[in-house]
Design goal:
Layout: E1 2-8, H1 21-29, E2 40-47, H2 55-68, E3 75-78, H3 80-88, H4 95-106, E4 109-112
Parallel strand pairs: 1-2, 1-3, 3-4
Bound molecules: iron/sulfur cluster (SF4) (2 copies).
Length: about 120
């Protein structure tokens, strides 16, 4: 079973989607970027660390907290909100730089996007 953590854009969450209902729906229906999984378990949702791109300390803290709970993640999805922020809102994150950095630091796969709504 894939253990997935989702990161959302701290500036967009609850402005473009309320209560992350779109991601919960997509994950339960294995829609869009979740269609790759046979079985998927959402272990955590948290923000991106805020501007100007403080993702690494955020994921480090998330990994520590989950380890203390005898858990962890094997895949990190950057929410569709983060993708939208990068494409339309001058988000400082460069996904092509961030992906290999997170994958090597945390031993998890990184996927850009979640739902397609
Ligand atoms: S794209 Fe997903 S993670 Fe981002 S705000 Fe919407 S529901 Fe939440
Ligand atoms: S614009 Fe980018 S760095 Fe800023 S809060 Fe949103 S996702 Fe995070």
């Amino acid at each position: 079973m894939a253990k997935v953590a989702i990161l959302y854009c701290k500036r967009i969450k609850d402005h473009s989607c309320i209560a992350c209902a779109k991601c919960y729906k997509a994950i339960s229906e294995k829609q869009a970027e979740f269609s790759r999984y046979d079985d998927v378990h959402l272990v955590a949702m948290t923000d991106c660390g805020d501007c100007p791109g403080l993702v690494v300390p955020r994921v480090k803290l998330l990994q520590e907290v989950l380890r203390n709970l005898d858990g962890g993640f094997d895949t990190i999805h950057l929410g569709t909100c983060m993708k939208m922020a990068m494409e339309t809102a001058q988000c400082p994150i460069d996904f092509d730089e961030l992906k290999p950095m997170l994958e090597s630091k945390f031993g998890a796969k990184v996927v850009l996007g979640t739902h397609s709504y």
